[in-house]
Amino acid sequence: MLAVVFAVTPAQAAVQRAAQPGWRLKDTGTDVRFRGLAPVSRGVAWVAGSRGTVLRTDDGGRSWRDVSPPDAEDLEFRDVEAFDRRRAVVLAIGEGDASRILRTDDGGATWTESFRNPDPRAFYDCMTFFDRRHGLAMSDPVDGRYRILSTRDGGRSWTVLPSDGMPAAQPGEAGFAASGQCLVSSGPRDVWLATGGGATARVLHSADRGLTWTAAKTAIPAGDPARGVFALAFRDRGHGLAVGGDYRGDQESPHASAVSRDGGRSWVRSAVPPPAYRSGVTWLPHSRTAALAVGPTGTDLTVDGGRTWRTVDSGSYDTVDCTPDFGCWASGERGRVARLEF
């Protein structure tokens, strides 16, 4: 399903189709929406979603363990970052103290709340980690600038960074807590932040772990609270993909993807973008040109670094991510979690 088929005999084509990878749904036993996804390998993955739900699999999705924090039913988890099968950090979104961060060191048997937002003006959307110790979380603008949280101990404690190096936000601009991919990192210091809702959809970049930032316009349409860049993926500090559009199902999303080859300083519109809004994107492992984008109406594949995309699956997913051992996972509404299988 995700392979490129060249001119071959009918028999050869049948063999290729049989060997092509495709999404295989894994029964999670729940109907919550999983916008948070953190694969560790082909065998181990974490998902986080509505009603304070966190699940973990250790056997490739054949079974799932409910490791939700206690008394979290009113929390809306939108991001999870996992270091292995025992250590993970989850982010709950919302205004004021609804935005929280929790960490587990024992596979979800116990959780410790490491941050509860004290500012009613802040609304946290996404997290990213550079390594097992250093990470950031971002909030929608407060006093006209995005607010950045920093951790140096793996999410056990958090500090609000100074806003002096953050460019001013546009009127109405914000991040989208749709897939845990509005804040992404690559390497030990580079991080990118995706925006929408303002006059233009932008990508902000920091090369010093969130202390100073520069902003670049993208070709993805904005100008409306429902439009903008929803997800980013960088395979190194130079090559990035941006996807988004308009999340309303009755609205078209032309030009829903863009490509950067200079670390996010400039963005070029895809020649053939995905046909609809996409909320998640990831590079395929060990590839310089192949990537997947997902959204409520399907999955798209690029094999030329984001210049052109084609739809390869019609299932609904909100987010997607891959591990170096070809553990590619996707998750979304109604408890849907899938792994790319052969």
Write the layout of secondary structure elements.
Elements: H1 10-19, E1 22-26, E2 36-39, E3 45-48, E4 54-57, E5 65-66, E6 76-82, E7 88-93, E8 100-104, E9 112-116, E10 124-129, E11 135-142, E12 145-151, E13 159-160, E14 183-186, E15 190-194, E16 202-206, E17 214-217, E18 227-234, E19 240-246, E20 257-260, E21 268-269, E22 280-283, E23 291-295, E24 298-302, E25 310-313, E26 319-323, E27 327-331, E28 337-341
Antiparallel strand pairs: 1-28, 2-3, 3-4, 4-5, 6-7, 7-8, 8-9, 10-11, 11-12, 12-13, 14-15, 15-16, 16-17, 18-19, 19-20, 20-21, 22-23, 23-24, 24-25, 26-27, 27-28
Structural description of this entry:
This protein has one helix and 28 strands. The strands form seven sheets. Strands 1-28-27-26 form a four-stranded antiparallel β-sheet, with no helix packed on it. The protein has a four-stranded antiparallel β-sheet with strand order 2-3-4-5, with no helix packed on it. Strands 6-7-8-9 form a four-stranded antiparallel β-sheet, with no helix packed on it. The radius of gyration is 19 Å and the shape is globular. It is mostly beta strands. It is 3% helix and 40% strand. The termini are close together. The model is unreliable at 1-8 and 11-19 (pLDDT under 50).
Keywords:
342 residues; mainly beta; 4-stranded antiparallel β-sheet; 1 helix; 28 strands; globular; disordered N terminus
Succession of helices and strands: HEEEEEEEEEEEEEEEEEEEEEEEEEEEE
Beta-strand content bin: 35-45%
- Which range best describes the helical content: under 10%, 10-25%, 25-40%, 40-55%, 55-70% or over 70%? under 10%
User: Would you tell me the structural class of the helices and strands?
Assistant: mainly beta
Give the uncertain stretches in residue-range form.
1-8, 11-19
Q: How would you sum up the major sheet?
A: 4 strands, antiparallel
What is the CA-atom radius of gyration, in angstroms? 19 Å
Q: Number of DSSP strands?
A: 28
| Distance between the first and last residues' Cα | 10 Å
Overall shape = globular
| Order of strands across the main sheet | 1-28-27-26
Number of helices: 1
Mean pLDDT over the residues: 94
